[in-house]
């Protein structure tokens, strides 16, 4: 389970309808269980997405037995989803994670 901070100005992406639309667009049909949006796509056996209003929390379960092209497409979609919801690119997320780890 990972927590992702949200860039200022991207908080509207955390509203339930907007978040549902982004999950559906990135990973296909999703269902809602206890405030968590759940879907699956490619190498993601299971992805649950929810928010506390400040951070985005994502819990995933991966399938390592998929072909390389499926794994690459899954990673691409996951990174695109994070970019659109958090407002941070993968480089920015990595830099923030390294900064947090040093604390």
Overview of the structural elements:
43% of the residues lie in helices and 28% in strands. It is an alpha+beta fold and 103 residues long. It has one domain (2-97): TATA-Binding Protein (2-Layer Sandwich), CATH 3.30.310.190. Strands 1-5-4-3-2 form a five-stranded antiparallel sheet, covered by helices on one side. A hairpin with a 2-residue loop joins β3 (36-41) and β4 (44-51). α1 (16-27) runs antiparallel to α2 (68-86). The longest helix has 19 residues, at 68-86. It is globular, with a radius of gyration of 14 Å.
Task: State the total count of DSSP E strands.
Answer: 5
Describe the largest sheet.
Answer: 5 strands, antiparallel
The residue ranges in which pLDDT falls below 50 over 5 or more consecutive positions are none
The geometry reads as: globular
**Gyration radius, to the nearest Å?**
14 Å
Percent of residues in helices: 40-55%
User: What is the ordering of alpha helices and beta strands?
Assistant: EHEEEEHH
Second rung of CATH, namely the architecture = 2-Layer Sandwich
Overall mean pLDDT: 90
Q: Look at the structure and give the CATH class.
A: Alpha Beta
Query: What's the tally of helices?
Result: 3
| Lateral strand order in the biggest sheet | 1-5-4-3-2
Strand content: 25-35%
Give the tally of structural domains. 1
- Based on secondary structure, the structural category is alpha+beta
Distance between the termini: 20 Å
> What is the CATH T-level topology?
TATA-Binding Protein
């Amino acid at each position: 389970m990972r927590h992702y901070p949200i860039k200022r100005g991207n908080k509207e992406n955390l509203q339930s309808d907007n978040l549902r639309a982004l999950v559906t667009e990135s990973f296909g049909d999703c269902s809602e269980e206890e405030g968590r949006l759940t879907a699956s796509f490619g190498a993601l056996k299971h992805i649950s997405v929810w928010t506390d209003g400040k951070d985005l929390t994502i819990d995933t379960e991966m399938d390592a037995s998929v072909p390389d092209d499926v794994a690459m497409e899954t990673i691409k979609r996951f990174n695109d989803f994070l970019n659109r919801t958090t407002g941070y690119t993968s480089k920015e997320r990595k830099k923030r994670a390294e900064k947090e780890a040093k604390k």
